[in-house]
Fold:
Amino acid sequence: MFEKIPVEVGLTHEGERVRKNDMQVELGGPNEKEKFEIVRVSPADQIEDGRISIIGPDLGEMGEGKHYPVAIIVEVSGAKVEPDLEGVLERRIHEYSNYIEGFMHLNQRYDIWIRLSKKSYKKGFTSLRFAGEVMLELYKSELPIIEKIQITFITDPETISPLYAKALTTYEARDARARGLSDDDVDSFYGCALCQSFAPTHVCVITPQRYANCGAISWFDGRAAAGIDPKGPIYAIDKGTCIDKVKGEYTGVNESAKQRSMGEVNRVYLYSAFEYPHTSCGCFEGIAFYIPEVDGFGIVLRGFRDVTVNGLPFSTMADSTAGGRQVDGFHGISIEYMRSMKFLGADGGYNRVVWMPHETRERLKQFIPESVFGAIATEQDVRTIPELKTFLESHNHPVTSRWDAEEETGRAEDGSPRIPVFSGGDIPFTSGGFRIILKNARITADKVIIQPIKPGSPGGEHHGAKKP
Amino acid sequence: MGRKSVNFSIKEINTDLARFRDLNITIGAITREQWDEPMGPTPFPSLTTLRPWDQRLLKRYKPFYLPFCDLCCMCTYGKCDLTGSKKGACGISMSAQQSRTVLLSACIGAATHISHSRDLLTHLIAASGRDCPINVGGTGVEVEAPITRLVCGIKPITLGDLEPVLDYCENQVTQLLAVTHTGQEGNNLDFESKVFHAGMIDHVGMEVADIAQVSALGFPKADAEAPLVDLGLGTVDTKKPVILVIGHNVPPATEIIDYLKENDLFPEVEVTGICCTALDITRYSPKAKIVGPISWQLRYIRSGVPDVIVIDEQCIRTDTLFEAARINTPLIATSEKNCLGLPDLTHEPVESIISGFVTGTVPGALILDPEKVGEVAVRVAIAMAPQRKKHSALPTKHQLTEWAKKCTQCMLCRRACPNDLPVAQAIRLAASGNLSGLDELYDDCLGCGRCESACKQKIPVHSLIVTAADKKTREETFCLRSGRGAIQDTEIRKVGGPIVLGEIPGIVAFVGCANYPKGSREVAEMCMEFARRRYIVCTSGCSAMSAGMYRDEEGKTAYERYSGAFEAGGIVNVGSCVANAHIAGAAIKIASVFAKRPLRGNYEEIADYVYNRVGAVGVAWGAMSQKAAAIAAGFWRLGIPVVVGPHGTKYRRMLLGRADKEADWLVYDARTGEQVNGGPVPEHLFFAAETKEEAMVMIAKLTMRPNDTSKGRANKLANYIDLHKRLIGGIPPDVYRLVRTPADIPLTMKDEIQVHLAEHDWKEATIPDPTLLSRMVHSRKVA
Structure:
């Protein structure tokens, strides 16, 4: 495949670092102001398939140890190649160029930073043409939907400058489109069954407004992957009829979930943590957890090592929601989903969120409505549920209005909603000559104290081996 | 244990107040005993409980026997020749006898860890109490004892909860040992099943030991940033009094540290260690120093640097007393299991013990009280240092040449050398004043000293090598990331995505002893190569030290270069031998973390999950001991393949799969219930590689599992093929067996692999939801 390339090309070179002392030349990077890479979908007649152009000095004409500006423009066309896929195709530049021995590519878009090692240069990698050839080959080989492709490398600052400004506009437009795209705007969602190799009944449903739980696959990624390999683990879901717009229930999603989970999951509410929440495998980035005492949600991300306000750490709650199950009130989520307008939409969105670690709250600042931001407590404000309750009241958090509504259904004296400790089918008892039967009784108590009558000794009865 | 459940139901109850029927009482607020996971089918399995699972594995991986000895001489009928189809006087066949020997080894290994664990636990309970809580990783670890939960169905909360776990282990080892009596078991596969059982029990024992010491001694708790500690002969400050601890059971060593701290003596005394006690003492105090793996015992003692030697148990040279006497250094033995004929001075006053040592009237003593050892060792080191003046047993360079001249070139030294090193040639060179030959031997030498025993001229061959390599020993200044213990649940969650997306090709654990074919360097090279390829690399025991004993082109050791996190390209030192349990534990936790499979007493289902889905491989490049045999067996039963170095063939049998027999590789597709080809993966369960190159290619191949996503398989194949091309040459001949769909083909190798597939009449296959257990097939609820 790469016989004409003077250095090796392979997966094993991914992640290679070229350090300053080993560097022949640097393209882009922190020392260059204007640099970028971009993929554009163009009309077929404007592309000369396989053409590689280099404008400005090539690698062999550059000074050793020096840095230069760079632009990489990849133009593609194909019947199935849509402008919506540009972002997905663009990230392949990073992946492919990193397969080249001694060619380090970091970041993306207007942040790119490329280094070529002296060793690879000495082996004959003296032209960007080689990088272009590798990319051409890999684009076409991995993505047969690309019918025509041409690549342009520019290292001349004068030529880059106007194109750089244009690229920035394109990125902005693309981001605006991604942010603006709602689940209502599209006919297809995407399912991802990659995690089924470890969690056989879990399926992710990826919509424009609901990123995959792992945070790694957007609706655009899903669209590209399903277009490239329709039989692969990422596939299109015809969303069908909308059953409930608020909860996010669709006939197509339900049917797909049923098929893919072997009937374990029959209904999915995309935007709710209750009843039929979206399942998770184990690699979700965060958890939304229901706090019954205040009728609101806490949020905790994987990296948070302290216990949360309900006294449980991430790892304990994660254990409650993993494994492709639907667990009421424990909801595995991605960070990107937390930036979505649909985030917990059916449950009240951020107006229902009462607690999250300070760092997370800061990270999501621009996505949390200003009206509720200050009323969401962090570990710096409260440590316990009673403290949380006081905090929410004093900050007039929207959930407090839900408390009043529930007041009538019965509350303990301290204001906390009562949770039954006893429940029984029939509880009959006699009193004054009458037989009274309580059906579906729920008995609540302020506190249950259980004291052992005889302290147990360590050891127990399990000493010997049991027969199967 | 011994605590009441908080969830219960009452069929009927009559009280003065009321009569209750079908009353369910759930109390959520009481958390201490709340483990609502129902008990699985096999808590505390007996010898035969998991036999059907073992038979499934052994059907695929038939034992391939390599009789190390053709005779059985275990009873007085013998010796019995078992070659060919001959049977012994008791009727035993060669295959059964080989398996019986493996079982004996595995029992010895398991007994050793369990007894170590028992001593340690008893000591820690005496010091910290039965109620001392188990804490292996704070909030990052939800499943604190995956193996114990899995095997015993117990969720231990305090140290006291671990005692019945050990009761069970001790019971099982006794039963297993009984199996090896003459005229007991007769079938080789039943012996093999019991080997697996011994291995599983061994892992329970190891887990108990490590979680107990991590909890009670304040070792790093699942800490990816555990401190970097000094490693190597060159790091020892020889101007100070030096204490050497050797062995595996850390309490005497921690008492030494405590005494030093309490008396503000730490800055004045060096605490150095060899073998696992060294690893564990740095987990207790990062100021302690690791000299090296077990092969460093002779060279370090003979250098004369230690002023007192404290030994506990396991993997200690049995001639340590003799070697210590040669350098005028007192020896303190501290374990009932290792008394070396020494007088028991446990109850003697400290002053009199010290005076006995210092005056030289007592060359060594048994002291069975760790606290007393702490004080005695420190004070003896301080008292001995000025009078010993680091008296060395090594020859000077001049003496070396004189010794070398006595050599008759009889070659007995080379014949005695386990690695067939060209010892005699090097000595001949040395006789002419050229020490380069001996110097070159240093790196590959295992430090066993057999060359010396063999020498008719009584030449201290090993000492000659160490003297010749004098400069190298001074330059041994490396570092190692102190043993971190468990893997956090959250780290496992983090790598789930990269594994299915094909960014992490697998998990490779370099474990075990230092009986390497070519010295430590190969372990370090393999670790770095797999970390560079973004595998998750784990290390433990002597291999963890070897991994840190070399520097890359930038002068960095593996632990400086790569992170200590359980992530792509991390090098994760879990700790000493007993910390191996955390590697098996991480594999088990994957089933719980991603699929929420219940662990409690549910061995078979979880082993089936791990075997079919978790791409982990154990590598014991220098496996030497019976403990290593038991550790490997514990991995086998979980379905994790183990690769050993060439000396590993002496474990008497391999467990090899037959890739060419398609019928051997059928799995159920849990989605459909159909039996489909799962591919010959992992191809072997126990494999001895001749060379590092062969091992690396095999490791890459053995990380494949039938559940691999296409992206995952493509990445595994890319590494396998790339390593094969570099180290052996050409595309491996079996790629067509390992590619299931076109998407499995590594992108950058598409052309050549398509040619290869065409040559082999390759056909596309489905990727199953794999299981060996028909009961795991989903009862399909949809049409």
Remarks:
- Chain B touches chain A through 97 residues (CB under 8 Å).
- Chain B has 29 helices and 23 strands.
- Residues 773 and 780 of chain B are 16 Å apart (CA to CA).
